[in-house]
Amino acid sequence: MDKKQDLISRIQSSMTKFSKGQKLIANYILNHYDKAAFMTAARLGSVVGISESTVVRFATELGYDGYPKLQKALQELIRTKLTAVQRMEITSDRIGDHDILSTVLQADMDKIRLTLEEIDKDGFENIIETILKANKIYILGVRSSAALASFLGFYFNLIFDNVRLVHTTSVSEMFEQVLRVDANDVVIGISFPRYSRRTVKALQYAKDQGSKVVAITDSQLSPLAAYADHTIIARSDMASFVDSLVAPLSVINALIVALGMRKKDEVYQTFEHLEHIWEEYQVYEKYSDEITEDEIQKV
Residue 139: left (phi > 0), alpha (psi -120 to 50), or beta? Predict the structure, then answer.
């Protein structure tokens, strides 16, 4: 029996000893567990018409140390199961007519705060060492995580000369690009709910070849973590049709800065060289305090 069915079975088997109010909660969860997983105790109580304290007692009755533990269990169980339509419905339910700008930015701030509180700093340092020792560095992320992979790849290419950003639209293409990975390499896989099967399979292959695998994901229960030697956990919000990847991007930024500082002299020389190239080939727009007559006429 899988975990979801185990939790559902616990609720069903406890029905006879629940109070009237607790039965209302139980029935709502059984029929709408995808929505209940993202409701506060107060919100859930309001929806089913009972008090917040009854919701808290319901969680305790099921053996959880408070409602947040039950809520987290529900969220973990449905992490890969929410469809885009369900996510849209949850977004509407959570935000409604509230100030969307403030609500979304506050939620992103909370994700960064939780990530900082929970991140394994020793593990982070171990990842730095693993990457520094690698012969080749492979970076892969698809769908919404492709933006994170591209950002990481862009800056890694300024720090290292052994980086390969895996671009792919199919499973076969991904395997073709990581075909020669070996024990001297490191493969960095990035994926958040709904997890990419292509990324998981590629990490499995890399692990089988003896490569060091680094997963950047949202939970130790993520399928990426099963094949990772090192895992960076960054909170994401999948209860929306838009993936919130602010915290993962912040962690990736920290990873880039940490590695840049470890290779400070080489990075300094690289940027010094690049500045000359950018100047010579006019890569960036330059502004002057004085505007020439020709420039005025062009405007």
Answer: beta
pTM for this predicted structure: 0.71
pLDDT tens for each residue of 96-111: 666 778 878 888 898 8
Quote the CA–CA distance of 138 and 164 in Å, as a whole number: 5
Q: Is residue 85, in this structure, part of any structural domain at all?
A: no
Residue-wise pLDDT tens digits, 113-152: 989 998 999 999 999 999 999 999 999 999 889 999 999 9
Measured CA to CA, the distance from residue 54 to residue 268 in angstroms comes to 60
Q: Same domain, yes or no, for 53 and 163?
A: no
- DSSP state, residue 195: P
Task: Note whether residue 290 is domain-resident.
Answer: no
Beta-strand relationship, 186-190 and 212-217:
parallel
Q: What is the crossing angle of helices 100-118 and 246-262, to 10°? A: 50
Reported as a single tens digit per residue, the pLDDT across 156-214 is 999 999 999 998 767 778 888 999 999 999 999 999 887 888 999 999 999 999 999 99
**Domain range spanning residue 40?**
3-78
CB hemisphere CA count around 114 (13 angstroms): 16
Token duo for residue 108? 């992103």
